Amino acid sequence: MKKTYKLSKDQKSKQEHARVWIETNTALRQAGFVPGAHFHKEWNTEAKVPVLELHLLDEDDLTGGFGTVSERRGKSVIDITGWTVKQFFEPHTHVEATYSDGLIEIRGTVVEN
Q1: What pLDDT score does 14 carry?
Q2: What is the phi/psi pair of residue 61, to 5°?
Q3: Rounded (to 5) percent helix, strand, coil in the chain
Q4: CA–CA distance, 109 with 107 (Å, rounded to integer)
Q5: What is the pTM of this model?
Q6: 60: DSSP letter
Q7: What residue spans of 2-90 are helical by DSSP H?
Q8: Residue 57: exposure state from Cβ atoms within 10 A (0-12, 13-18, ≥19)
Q9: Amino acid 109: pLDDT
Q10: How does DSSP assign 31-49, residue by residue?
Q11: CB half-sphere exposure, 108, CA atoms < 13 A
Q12: Which pLDDT belongs to residue 12?
């Protein structure tokens, strides 16, 4: 399953950050990314376009630096923000997320208005 999301600025900060916000019920849950699940972020710069890979972790795989799927109004939410996101996906305007079992690949893309 593929979905496209607009990269947005972090509204909580005056600094210009980029933000990847994925809020969905079906796609995340089908890939195993349910509220409370943990994932590891892998920033792949070797691909033709930048790819951020989110790998679902088992409880015995937990180490420092993992993210956690949160819940908002009954939906699974992944929120990744910061200067690293801005630098990594620049000059892309959107990201395209591809969901598979235990993995989400997030690729930078440009969508013309």
Answers
A1: 45
A2: -95, 0
A3: 15, 50, 35
A4: 6
A5: 0.81
A6: G
A7: 26-30, 83-89
A8: middle
A9: 85
A10: TT--TT-EEEEEEE-SSSS
A11: 20
A12: 54
pLDDT at 4: 75
CA–CA separation, 69 and 56 (whole Å): 10
Compute mean pLDDT per 10 residues along the chain, 113 residues long, and list them: 68 61 85 93 85 88 79 90 84 88 91 73
Helix H or strand E segment including 8? strand 8-9
**Tokens 């079992």, located at residue:** 101
- Rounded distance between C-alpha atoms, residue 18 and residue 45, angstroms: 17
Both tokens of 61, joined, read 């795989």
Nearby residues of 6 by Cβ (< 8 Å), 6 or more positions away: 93, 94, 111
Residue that is written with structure tokens 């909580």 in the block:
12
- Asked if omega into 35 is within 30° of 0 (cis), the reply is no
State how far the Cα of 54 lies from the Cα of 112, in Å rounded to an integer.
26
Block residue for tokens 């969508």: 111
